[in-house]
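Re: Re: C-alpha cell formats

Sure, here are both.
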Amino acid sequence: MPYIGINTSKSLSDPQKDALKTALGAKISLIPGKSQSKLMVDISDGRTMYLAGEKRELAYVDVKCFGAGEFAHKKVFTEAAFEVVQQTTGLPQDGIYLTYSEFENWGTQGTMK
C-alpha cells in the first residue's frame, strides 16, 4: 500500500484536492507493483511553511511504500508528481519537495506484512 502525504501552504479547493488525488493515483503505477486501488492520499493545505527561515509558498510530498523500488521508477514518478503538484497548486518547482520512505514491514488488515 503506498501512502502519499501532501503538506502545502496553499489553500486548496475540494476540486483541487480531488484533482491531486486522481492524478497521483494515475501516476503511482509508474512504480511497478503500486496501484491506485491501494493508494492512500492525505492532503493538508493552508499550512504555515518556512524554508531557510523565510515564510514561503511550499509543498512537501511524502511518499511511503511497502518494499523498495528501483531508483529509475521512483525518478519517473517523482517527475510526474512534481508536474501534478505544480499544475494543481500553481507552485513553482523550486517550491516543491518530495521524499520517499520504504518499509520492509507494513501493518494492514489487522496484521503485519
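Second one below.
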Amino acid sequence: MNLEASMKEAMNIEGAMGIAVIDYNSGMPLGTLTSVNDLDLDVVAAGTTDFVRAKMRTLELMRLDEPIEDILVTLVSQYHLIRPLTSRNGKGLFLYLMLDKARGNLALARHRLSRIERELEV
C-alpha cells in the first residue's frame, strides 16, 4: 500500500481526526490528512518528533533493547497514537494518529495502525 492509500485507510478508522507519516530525523511529515480545519499537522510533526526522539534516547539510557511498539498520549477528549515503523524501508519514520476519544476505539485503532504499518511501502 502506498503512502496516500495508507493515510486514507487510517482516516477510515472510526474517530480519526488526523494522520501523518513523519520522518523523525528531520521532523518533516512525508504526508498528512486531517478532518479538522484548524489542525496544522506540520506543527504537530515537529513537536511530536522531539517527543519520540526523547523517548528513544530514554530507552537507550535504560539499556532496553526493545523496539517501541507504540506511544499513547491520552487527553480528555482525544488519543494521540504514535507508531514507529519497523520495516526496513520505514526505519526513521513514524505514524501519528489523532483519534476522537468519544467516537474511536483505541484497541481497534492500534490494530488497524499495525496492519497499515505492515502493508505500507515507502
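The longest helix spans residues 41-61. The first strand starts at residue 16 and ends at 23.
- S.
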